[in-house]
Amino acid sequence: MSPGNQQELFFELSKNLCGFDDLSHGLSNVYYSIFASNQTTQADLQLLLTGYEKIVNDNPKDIINAIQTKILSEENLRNLALSIIKLWYLGVIPIVAGGPTDTTLELQGYNFYYEALVWRAAKAHPPGLSKAFYGHWSYKPES
């Protein structure tokens, strides 16, 4: 698999894992490079993308079910998939310090936090970052 093809597979897999069709391609490439450059996740990322490519090539009727059955059923791939979801939704990834129960979340950058999908899913904005004018909170929201 070429790096460009891997990035595209990562982008398509991310859309399926997160439930959004309009993810940022540029942000996806950045997120891909975070996992691809990490020695802890490199091998599992390769397995995850190979598994996803096989699913896509099989052209299943329900791709989400196929992902659940063939990828999320394997612990190492499920953990990586959950890390990808956390990065997209929260802008953080888990860092395993001493084992599976000793995990902390590491913020990958403030821009990732501000671009996190959690804000879109909640129809909200990050605290301290609003596109509205100063004092907008004193007016009732439009329906």
State the shape. Answer: elongated
Overall pLDDT confidence: 83
Amino-to-carboxy terminus distance: 48 Å
The domain count comes to 1
How would a textbook summarize the main sheet?
A: 2 strands, antiparallel
CA gyration radius, whole angstroms: 17 Å
Poorly predicted spans: 97-102
Spell the H/E element sequence.
HHHHHEEHH
Structural class: mainly alpha
| Count of beta strands | 2
| Strand order across the largest sheet | 1-2
Percent of residues in β-strands:
5-15%
In words, what does this structure look like?
- This protein is mainly α and 143 residues long.
- It has one domain.
- 55% of the residues lie in helices and 7% in strands.
- It has 7 helices and 2 strands.
- The chain has helices spanning 3-18, 25-36, 42-58, 63-70, 75-90, 110-114, 117-121, and strands spanning 92-96, 103-107.
- Strands 1-2 form a two-stranded antiparallel ribbon.
- Helix 3 crosses helix 5.
- The longest helix has 17 residues, at 42-58.
- The radius of gyration is 17 Å and the shape is elongated.
- The relative contact order is 0.11.
- The model is unreliable at 97-102 (pLDDT under 50).
